Amino acid sequence: MDFTYSEEQQMLADSLRRFVESEYTFAQRRRRAREGASFDRAIWTRLAEMGVLGLTAPAEYGGFGEGAASRLVVQRELGRALVLEPVVPCSVMATAILAAYGSAAQQDHWLGAIATGQQVVVPAFAETASRYRLDAVGTRATPVGRGYVLDGAKALVWHGEAADAYIVSARVGDAVTGDIALFLVPRESRGVRVAGYPTMDGQRAADVSLEAVAVGAEALIGAPGAGVVALGHGVDCGIAALCAEAAGAMERLIEITAEYLRTRRQFGQPLAAFQSLQHRMADMLMHKELALSMAYVAAQALDEPDARKCRRMLAAAKVTVAEAGRFVGQQAVQLHGGMGMTDELEVGDYFKRLTMFDPLLGDIDHHLASYVEAMDD
After folding, report:
1. Rg (CA), the chain
2. What CA–CA distance (Å, rounded) separates 231 from 237?
3. Going by fewer Cβ within 10 Å, which terminus of the chain is more open, N or C?
4. How many alpha carbons fall within 13 Å on the CB side of residue 171?
5. 122-224 and 228-373 share one CATH topology?
6. What pLDDT score was predicted for residue 228?
7. Of 138, 92, 9, 150, whose CA–CA distance to 361 is shortest?
8. Which superkingdom, per the lineage (predicted)?
9. What are the sequence ranges of the domains in the chain?
10. How far apart (Å, rounded) are the C-alpha atoms in residues 159 and 124?
11. How far is CA 92 from CA 44, 121, 195, 306, 368, in A?
């Protein structure tokens, strides 16, 4: 996979950079995050117009049919700005699941709506006791007539408040041995209740409960027993996108910290003149470069035909980027001194975002175990 930016990719990166600087300023982002308005339909529409939301959707459904390399370009720029909108859960994860496993009718309706920004669809798979396991599903789907009735609860649904529909995992029939399937559940369905709350990094999540929610047979995504595989595909794409996003956030945080050291003076000279601080900045830069390299590895893993190798590559990337993000975030706060602990500066927002990168879609411990399990005998 060639990660040298093509002319089109560079143009997309430049347009996103300009958009952030002119229409998505940090002051605006911070105000929306503080007010609990992490989703803005106007911003979402602008992202759709720039091709961000339909980047990897098939061309026949209004997308651009691009691959992981182009997604890396986009997420890196979005990470630099700490964009709050649900790009990863909707235009990355949900799009990947529907494009690979959705029926023709589902693809025709939902992929086009996602690409144009008209609909927001997010996966709802985590439960209170699942602990990152995609097969730990207590939600039930009882066959009734030509459809199903869903009962259960999903926790930590990323951007669940902003969603128009959910991709819900449930066991068909028996609550223990039933096949795990995915269902498209519109939010306005009777019996769906959503309780939203803020996350530490200024984004939003929600608990979604389903009580006797009736859906038709057309809501089933793929075969009844393909739920874990389909969901895993979406999670893999989400991990690759998050790695690129975190690398972009580290990149911008280092720039902010370097500027602070150049302007802040002590003992008659800028802090940047002190060799010990130069060494710490160099360590931060090395960790960022390692994270960016592993973001490339994660993007490349999506095209890897060997499932075990793909799993190792993604796990290694997630662990390495999470560790790098923690290091860069902590160092940036320390180099800002007492100011780094306040809400006055941007550094705190980046630190929180990089801290939250670890538990999203599996923390370090989970992916270390996943890496070991995927090793060749």
Report:
1. 21
2. 10
3. C
4. 16
5. no
6. 96
7. 92
8. Bacteria
9. 7-120, 122-224, 228-373
10. 10
11. 14, 10, 24, 22, 24
β pairing state of 140-144 and 180-186: unpaired
Q: How far apart are CA 124 and CA 183, in angstroms?
A: 10
Question: What average pLDDT does the segment 187-197 reach?
Answer: 96
**CATH class given for the domain over 228-373:** mainly alpha
Structure tokens at 338: 């007492």
Of 18-22, 31-35, 250-254, the one with minimum mean pLDDT is: 31-35
Fold that domain 122-224 belongs to in CATH = Butyryl-CoA Dehydrogenase, subunit A; domain 2 (2.40.110)
162-189 exposure pattern, b = at least 16 Cβ within 10 A, e = fewer:
bbbbbbbbbbbeeeeebbbbbbbbebee
Task: Give the confidence band of 210 by pLDDT, cuts at 50, 70, 90.
Answer: very high
Indicate the residue type of 186: P
Q: Which helix (H) or strand (E) holds 170?
A: strand 165-172
Angle at 296 between CA 290 and CA 297, to 5 degrees: 90
Range 300-309 average pLDDT: 95
Block residue for tokens 């790098």:
324
